[in-house]
């Protein structure tokens, strides 16, 4: 088994970090912020890693696998463990079925040995599994054929059963259902069929589970999708019941859509279930979180931190990464993204909420937006590094990973793979 331990910080590194941290602490104290409390929240922050993210994703055109690609879910869990050991921020893995289907006892054993747990289960009715009786070519939960719908429902129930054996507490459902031509599908009937199928799944959802539905405006269907936007997603959650919540994948919106406002609306009506974090420039690009527009990521967390002040104990939206890595080492991208998400959270914690509310009440637009930017501009790296130090993670995870030689080692153990499917969801 390939396990990587985070290298201990040298005394020089630790002393330098302490000086940076103290200097930042002094600045924050002048703003009335106690840095240790922020560090503790940073240390408690967690985001789940997608099992499909540790392999090279590829695009619709090609896939260029790197060395040491994981061969199966057990290799994937080892790579996920590296990410968590070095960042201290990713204790759980989100599985995709049937890609990760395996004996639950073996999965539990492996994850336990690696110090990992399982996050939301993801079903797959957007592609045909080998040996599958009926095809999802023309849809799954909304298909015109009741036999296909029944097969898709049964698959989701199978995901729940496996998740229960693994200690998961949520099922995420994303369907590629939709149409490519005007007139191809009756928009109302398709949504009715989808809702009826989802009701069957929801009926069998364990009492302590959440059902997360994920909207996406286009692709693979390019004219219409059945669950195309947050409004439809909200309708689904409202129709199904209180344990049905909306999942927001940052890449599943039209360019320039105000995602933080969608987040605020879903929070206000108790239907925000969680996130698939990534970044994009044009569409569902699945780029690394915070790599293109870190300010947007910060603005999403600004809504979450604001909501936490008023929310009850049930407010704990799921944090998951959903990216596709084409030109980087997936482990490096996932570590970097986990830290960028953590950074956005910490920056949002630094917003002077009292001052912001005062400026909003007084209609002082300039000072209100300046208050947000003051928090966003704060270099919180010493806080993140100190949180990692306290957890025995690496001060500089990417540097530690490169020095470890992990990729070269697993490349020797895992035969090179060619081609293969994507995993862009
Ligand atoms: Mn997603």
From TrEMBL:
GO molecular function per UniProt: isomerase activity; metal ion binding
Superkingdom of this protein's organism: Bacteria
Ranges of residues in domain Xylose isomerase-like TIM barrel: 92-286
Alphabetized InterPro entries for the sequence: L-rhamnose_isomerase, L_rhamnose_iso, Xyl_isomerase-like_sf, Xyl_isomerase-like_TIM-brl
Gene3D superfamilies: Divalent-metal-dependent TIM barrel enzymes
SUPFAM superfamilies documented for this protein: Xylose isomerase-like
Alphabetical keyword list: Isomerase, Manganese, Metal-binding
Protein name (record): L-rhamnose catabolism isomerase
Organism expressing this protein natively: Amaricoccus solimangrovi
Lineage: Bacteria, Pseudomonadati, Pseudomonadota, Alphaproteobacteria, Rhodobacterales
């Amino acid at each position: 088994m390939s396990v990587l331990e985070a290298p201990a910080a040298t005394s020089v590194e630790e002393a330098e970090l302490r000086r940076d941290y103290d200097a930042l602490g002094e600045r924050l104290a002048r703003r009335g912020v106690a840095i240790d409390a922020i560090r503790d929240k940073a240390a408690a922050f967690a985001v789940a890693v997608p099992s499909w993210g540790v392999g090279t994703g590829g695009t619709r055109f090609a896939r260029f696998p790197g060395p040491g690609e994981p061969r199966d879910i057990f290799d994937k869990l080892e790579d996920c463990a590296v990410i968590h050991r070095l960042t201290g921020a990713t204790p759980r893995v989100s599985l995709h079925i049937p890609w990760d289907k395996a004996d639950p006892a073996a999965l539990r054993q492996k994850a336990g040995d690696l110090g990992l747990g399982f996050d939301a289960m993801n079903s797959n009715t957007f592609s045909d599994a080998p040996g599958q009786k009926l095809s999802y070519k023309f849809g799954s939960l909304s298909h015109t054929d009741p036999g296909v719908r029944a097969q898709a429902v049964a698959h989701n129930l199978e995901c729940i059963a496996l998740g229960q054996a693994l200690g998961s507490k949520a099922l995420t459902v994303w369907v590629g259902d939709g149409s490519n031509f005007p007139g191809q599908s009756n928009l109302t009937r398709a949504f009715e069929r989808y809702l009826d199928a989802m009701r069957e799944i929801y009926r069998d959802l364990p009492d302590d589970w959440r059902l997360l539905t994920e909207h996406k405006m286009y692709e693979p269907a390019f004219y219409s999708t059945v669950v195309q936007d947050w409004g439809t997603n909200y309708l689904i959650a409202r129709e199904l019941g209180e344990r049905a919540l909306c999942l927001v994948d940052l890449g599943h919106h039209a360019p320039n859509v105000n995602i933080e406002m969608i987040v605020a609306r879903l929070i206000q009506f108790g239907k925000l279930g969680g996130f698939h974090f990534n970044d994009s420039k044009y569409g569902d690009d699945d780029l690394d979180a915070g790599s293109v527009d870190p300010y947007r990521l910060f603005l999403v967390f600004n809504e979450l931190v604001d909501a936490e002040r008023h929310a009850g104990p049930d407010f704990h939206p799921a944090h998951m990464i959903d990216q596709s890595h084409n030109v980087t080492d997936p482990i490096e991208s996932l570590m970097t993204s986990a830290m960028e998400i953590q950074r956005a959270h910490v920056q949002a914690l630094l917003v002077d909420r009292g001052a912001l509310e005062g400026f909003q009440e007084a209609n002082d637009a300039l000072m209100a937006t300046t208050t947000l930017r003051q928090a966003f501009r704060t270099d919180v790296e010493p806080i993140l590094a100190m949180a990692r130090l306290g957890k025995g993670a690496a001060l500089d995870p990417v540097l530690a990973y490169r020095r470890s030689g992990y990729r070269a080692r697993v490349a020797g153990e895992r035969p090179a793979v060619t081609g293969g499917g994507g995993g862009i969801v």
